[in-house]
Write a structure and sequence with these properties.
The chain contains eight helices and 17 strands. The strands form four sheets. It has an eight-stranded mixed sheet, sandwiched between helices. Strands 3-14-13-6-4 form a five-stranded mixed sheet, with no helix packed on it. The chain has one domain: 60s Ribosomal Protein L30, Chain: A, CATH 3.30.1330.200. About 40% of the residues are buried. The longest helix is centred in the middle third of the chain and has 16 residues. With about 280 residues, the protein is of the alpha/beta class. The N and C termini lie far apart (about 45 Å).
Length: about 280
């Protein structure tokens, strides 16, 4: 009973995005403020890119990182946890797998990085999870909210650009408005973002997901300033040559939770995962 919505401690957390916005319409205003920011294309210098089922945490004094971010989120939800006093921030790209453990890890990492800094509150921001036909995004939202609500610390939801607030109708198809965000760890600014380069070792990191990894991997050691992938087990995909022989449209329809709204590079990235 420690989730704080619009400054009020909650006995129960909302069951879905519609309930959240009905009970706390202020989140519509917060979402619109984010949507009014132009999407920035972020280059690789000073970037820590976080992929699906990955998370990372850093503090403002980190010499290696200026921006931590992720993109290509359709039914997934991007989660940002920040300590308002120290500026320590953790970012994760959740698809519904491994949420409970990852939420605890995110908060713990932010607390560790905030040690010795002024007092502050733990703030939570959610972006993504558009209104998709199968309501996959709603399932991810519910899992995330439940996980934070079970945490023993008070956590203040300050942004919820999810569900209908991150959805635009194009023709007769619901589409995400924001696919990715970046966080400036020096200032705390959060903004819509795209990342032309998603390295290093993007193919290997994606292969971990393709083979069914059930955890969210913490990829950054802030004490050493080192990107750390693994360890994890990997078995070659049986019939990979048959998958690689399929058309982009086939891959899109069979390997995406939201084939109508995936970015144009989806099929190419899936193919590169299977080559590893």
């Amino acid at each position: 009973m420690v989730l704080v919505l619009n400054g009020v401690l909650q006995d129960e957390c909302p069951m879905d995005t519609a309930s959240l916005f009905m009970q706390h319409p202020i989140y519509r205003d917060y979402a619109q403020q984010l949507l009014n920011i132009p999407t920035k294309s972020v280059g690789p210098v000073g970037l820590l890119y976080v992929g699906q089922r990955e998370m990372a945490a850093a503090a403002p004094h980190d010499k290696n990182i200026n921006i931590v971010g992720t993109d290509d989120a359709t039914t997934c939800i991007i989660v940002v946890v920040r300590h308002s006093g120290s500026g320590a921030v953790a970012l994760a790209h959740f698809d519904g797998t491994g949420v409970d453990e990852a939420v605890c890890t995110m908060v713990a990492r932010v607390q560790e990085l905030a040690l010795g800094y002024p007092e502050g509150r733990i703030e939570l921001q959610l972006i993504g999870g558009y209104r998709d036909p199968q309501s996959y995004g709603e399932e991810v939202f519910y899992n995330i909210m439940q996980s934070f609500h079970k945490h023993h610390l008070e956590i203040d939801l300050t942004q919820a650009c999810v569900g209908e607030l991150n959805t635009v109708l194009r023709g007769d198809v619901n589409c995400p408005i924001v696919y990715g965000v970046g966080v400036n760890i020096k200032t705390g600014e959060i903004f819509p973002a795209a990342f032309p380069e998603r390295g290093p070792d993007r193919e290997l990191r994606d292969a971990r997901i393709f083979m069914g990894a059930q955890n969210v991997l913490d990829i950054y050691d802030a004490a050493l300033g080192m990107l750390r992938i693994g360890p994890f087990n990997y078995d070659p995909l049986r019939g990979a040559d048959l998958w690689l022989a399929q058309s982009d449209e086939f891959l899109l329809q069979h390997l995406s939770s939201s084939p109508d709204v995936e970015p144009p590079h989806f099929a190419m990235h899936v193919s590169s995962r299977k080559v590893v």
